[in-house]
Amino acid sequence: MRVLALAPLALALLPVAVTAKDAVPSAALVASVKADSRTPANVARDRYRHPAETLAFFGVKPTDTVVEIWPGGGWYTEVLAPYLAKSGKLYAAGPSERGLGAVRALATARPDIYGGLHYAIFPAADGQARVPAGTADVVLTFRNIHNWRFGASDQTQAAFDQMFAMLKPGGILGIEEHRLPEDQAGVEEGKSGYMKRSSVIAYATKAGFRLVAESQINANAKDTHDYPGGVWTLPPTFAEKDKDRARYAAIGESDRMTLRFVKPR
């Protein structure tokens, strides 16, 4: 795993060095990644997503209270739930009850692993179940920020503000997102599924976060970021179906930024 200390940023974010120890997955984390309860199709994507190294970089501990934002089909839930089952707590925070259906189905099928899941709506409106303020050690969001840019209203800043509120002082926000190069022309953020690193940092900084480190573990130099169907042209979605499928399969999953922020004490 290649981890970069941050250069000074125009946004006045101070860099910190990330040691080798920060990036080495623990035996417990490796065991959760290798758990036989995981879906084989999900395991096959580990070579693109590097779950053990990514969660180690974010510093997730088995005693933490962790919020997984928009867990979707439960790809990361399958790793996080067994890892946190004994001593931690895991919230699945979805856009609606319907958006939590897949992880609720996991809990129904395997209550021994997923029965301890907690559920919340995110971003939550008044009266909706939300993660209590100041209770989370870690908030994680994987390839979701572009989704908050869609639709009639841009929810991105509100989402970052709510993530900031749910974290304890000193808590970590871990972000993995499809990366659009800063100088890429002709590709629109959000609609393409890609986001610029500078945009993500700006939203987080406005919410009150401080960027402390980034990793290139989920980078993909083969990704040209300019496909007819956006990021969904690449696997696993293959938006172009069989057209140039072998070409896109050879590229693999998207080029991704992996950023670690902190809520200042």
Termini, distance in Å? Answer: 29 Å
Which stretches are low in confidence, meaning pLDDT under 50 for 5 or more residues running? Answer: 1-21
Report the principal-axis shape: globular
> What kind of sheet is the major sheet?
9 strands, mixed
Our Rg estimate from Cα atoms comes to: 18 Å
By DSSP (H or I, 4+ residues per run), the number of helices equals 11
The share of residues in helices is: 25-40%
Helix and strand element order: EHHHHHEHEHHEEHEEHEHE
Would you tell me the overall average pLDDT?
91
> How many DSSP-defined strands?
9
* Backbone structural class: alpha/beta
- Residues in β-strands, percent: 15-25%
Topology readout:
Elements: E1 3-4, H1 20-23, H2 27-33, H3 40-43, H4 46-49, H5 51-58, E2 65-69, H6 77-84, E3 89-94, H7 101-109, H8 111-114, E4 118-121, E5 136-142, H9 156-166, E6 167-180, E7 195-196, H10 197-207, E8 210-215, H11 245-251, E9 256-262
Parallel strand pairs: 2-3, 2-5, 3-4, 5-6, 6-7
Antiparallel strand pairs: 1-8, 6-9, 8-9
Helix pairs in contact: 2-6, 9-10
Relevant terms:
alpha/beta, 11 helices, globular, disordered N terminus
Please, could you describe this protein's structure?
The protein has 265 residues and is α/β, with parallel strands linked by helices. It is 29% helix and 20% strand. It contains eleven helices and nine strands. Strands 1, 2, 3, 4, 5, 6, 7, 8 and 9 form a nine-stranded mixed β-sheet that branches. β2, α6 (77-84) and β3 (89-94) form a beta-alpha-beta unit. It is globular. It starts with a strand and ends with a strand. The relative contact order is 0.15.
